[in-house]
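Appendix B. Chain record.
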Amino acid sequence: MNLTQRLSLAFSALLLATCGVSAWLQISASELHDQQVIQGLSHDLASHIAQNGPLMDAQGPRPDMLKALFNQLMAVNPSVEVYLLDAQGNIKSDDAPPGHVKRHSVSLTPIRLFLAGNEMPILGDDPRSVDGRKVFSAAALPGANGHGIAGYVYVVLLGEVHDEWSARIERNSVLRTTLWSMGLVALFGLIAGLMAFRLITRPLGRLTEAVRDFDAGDEAGAATKLAQLNADHARGGGSSEIAMLERAFLQMSNRIAQQWSELKYRDQERRELLANISHDLRTPLTSLHGYLEALSLKFETLAEPERRRYLSIALGQSSKVGHLAQSLFELARLEHGQIQVAPEAFSLADLLQDVFEKFELAAEARRIQLLANIPQRLPEVYADLGMIERVLTNLLDNAIRHTPERGVIEVALALRDEQVVVTVSDTGPGIPVELRETLFQRPVNVGGHTQRIGGLGLLIVQQILHLHGSQIALVEREGKGGTFVFALKTP
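Structure tokens predicted for this chain:
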């Protein structure tokens, strides 16, 4: 059974139980009310009977007085039953037909409570029933010369005649009509309640189907159902708990879908990175292995200049492999938060001059001019000196590799909004449009081959600046090739 069916079944059982309890309470309250009213109205009936004449003398009950009195009461009110009790509660005389009296004594405790004026209704023993109890009226009969109690007048107010007429009335059409009316009201309430449950739980049912579709991998079906739920709540306000649950599930499903897409994208990146690393390592390792093998096989036959050339090429390829391995290791540490920033105040202009000195020979070899545009009185920056040096090194290395001979590489520093803005530009061919969006991501395959404008160097730059609360951006400038801009905070 689903939730709607269980709720409907529980509501039906609760409604029927409530109707039954309500009917029982109404009947009980009605009977209690009738008993209280009747006992209150007939409270002094037994006293009037006792005062009507001497019902007992020294020899016991007077049959002539009792018979006349009982006949008068039966004619006036057939529902009452009169009994004469002795001081111990034993029945000495009554008006019942032969065989109708089921017990020969009644309890005196209810009689004493009645005579003491306790709250009504007070139920006493019914002599014409083995264990029945009914409302009554009672009065004490004084003993000889007014001493003590000789007995009691005990009047059952709702006797056998009343019970017979009550049973007849319960079997007539009025009671049946009342019961049918109550049944119809309960039926209409049940139908209305089930319809209300259906309307209330219908969105929950759709949400359940959406969750089931989402769990089964049918994201399109789940999205359709959730869109329908959102449309319903947009029309109805959407302030119920189910609406909030639906919105929470929608947000969760969207977040899971985004995370799943991100995971698939990251997995694809990982696969491509492994393929690219394998390609990048295979080329220098193959070259390194080839030249070392040639040296091993032809060492005696090769001339000294040739051997030196082979060794120089092998060392260059070995340096490429080591540089790539170091970059991968550094990138992994940055991405996993294993490198902590140790900021300090230092002169960015002095650091730039030191980095220029490292690339001076490489720039002269390619006839590339290195320019530094540094304003006077430039404040210090507050950052990790070693990390910022690696940023400048990677950017200049990338610029030299993509700048043709007799080109120009310019690094400009400027103070803006209490930050030192660094602009690195060159006169190279620039960044192709199709690679600008993925420039700061791992190298990807485009058109069947690996595109590597910035390579791992730009990834490392991005991660370092991210740790400093900064971002690097590629900007368009007329007459320039690739232009990168980032900013560092001042102390």
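Further analysis of this model is presented in Appendix C.
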